[in-house]
Specification:
Radius of gyration: 24 Å
Order of helices and strands: HEEEEEEEEEHEHHHHHH
Structural class: alpha+beta
CATH topology of the largest domain: Immunoglobulin-like
Number of strands: 10
Number of domains: 2
Shape: elongated
Number of helices: 8
CATH class of the largest domain: Mainly Beta
Distance between the termini: 44 Å
């Protein structure tokens, strides 16, 4: 293999692996696009965390939000693990200071939160609740959406307390939480979903093209490329919360994500070995990489969910 040909293959390999990642970054929401509500008060969040079994409050049950926990103001630099297995509670209140009835959308604009229990409390009585999360059934969501969206209707002068319990990616909550009217939320939703749909269409086109190449060439390279692209697409759909387009049951299936990660990385390694012709130039390294890749894939395939 000439040096020029090797350079071209390395460049193509870099483009193949970096392009999907660029699309994946575009799927993350940016709250700067969110329109502000001039006539709705939104106080800062307060929070509290514990590691005990969380209670589930029923509609109509009494709940004194102020005294239920030792609430603390959320600091500007919140020192908490990125993934938290403890219960992290958040609370804030909303007041409709306008002269008309307002329907607001309370939204956590990120697809992954293991558990999320949201309670609407008025006059110390639970008015409504949602027990949902990315590891809970799709039907538990208030609105069928990749993110978590909860509609709230307030009459003129109404105030309501919002209490949320989270586990998992609780550190993301302050960054991706928003309160908006329906029109603002719809605009934001359309703007953030467009990159995901573009990325999905692009990946599907590449998968179809790789399937045609696989049928025509029937080589190890074309097979590894096809497997890599399918696994990567499933992983991107799972991360962005859009895997429900295939099946809602997959959305809370962490094993699917684990298998997709293991498959994508394993196929990438085998593709790298074949493209660089390592079996000819570095046979021992190729055999070692193959052995470790098989073990690596097995750990993803058989590890508990």
């Amino acid at each position: 293999m000439t040096l020029a040909l090797l350079s071209v293959r390395c460049l193509l390999l870099a483009l193949l692996f970096s392009m999907p990642a660029a699309f994946a970054r575009e799927t993350l929401p940016t709250l700067e696009l969110q329109s502000s509500l001039a006539d709705t008060v939104r106080p800062e969040l307060v929070y509290w965390q514990n590691d005990t079994e969380p209670p589930i409050y029923q509609p109509g049950q009494e709940l004194d939000v102020a005294s239920m926990a030792p609430w603390q103001p959320l600091p500007e630099l919140w020192d908490t693990p990125r993934y938290n297995t403890n219960n992290v509670w958040f609370a804030f209140s909303i007041t409709n200071a306008s002269s008309r009835i307002r329907t607001l959308m309370l939204a956590y604009n990120y697809a992954r939160m293991d558990e999320m229990d949201l309670y609407l409390v008025k006059n110390n009585i639970v008015q409504e609740r949602w027990i949902t999360g990315s590891e809970r059934p799709w039907e538990s969501r208030a609105i069928p959406n990749a993110n978590f969206v909860f509609p709230v209707t307030l009459s003129t002068g109404d105030s309501i307390n919002v209490v949320i319990r989270t586990t998992g990616r609780s550190s993301y909550f302050p960054k991706y939480w928003s309160v908006s009217d329906i029109a603002s939320w719809q605009r934001y939703h359309e703007l953030t979903q467009l990159p995901s749909l573009i990325a999905l269409g692009f990946m599907l086109c590449i998968i179809v093209y790789s399937a045609v190449l696989l049928h025509a060439l029937r080589t190890v390279v074309s097979l590894c490329a096809f497997i890599y692209l399918v696994a990567l697409t499933l992983l991107l759909l799972w991360i962005s919360g859009n895997v429900w387009l295939i099946s809602p049951e997959f959305n809370e299936n962490n094993r699917l994500a684990a298998i997709a990660v293991g498959t994508a990385i394993s196929a990438m390694v085998f593709l790298l070995i074949d493209l660089l012709e390592m079996r000819k130039t570095f046979p021992r390294i190729a055999r070692l990489l193959t052995f470790y890749t098989v073990i690596y894939f097995a750990t993803y395939l058989f590890r508990p969910p």
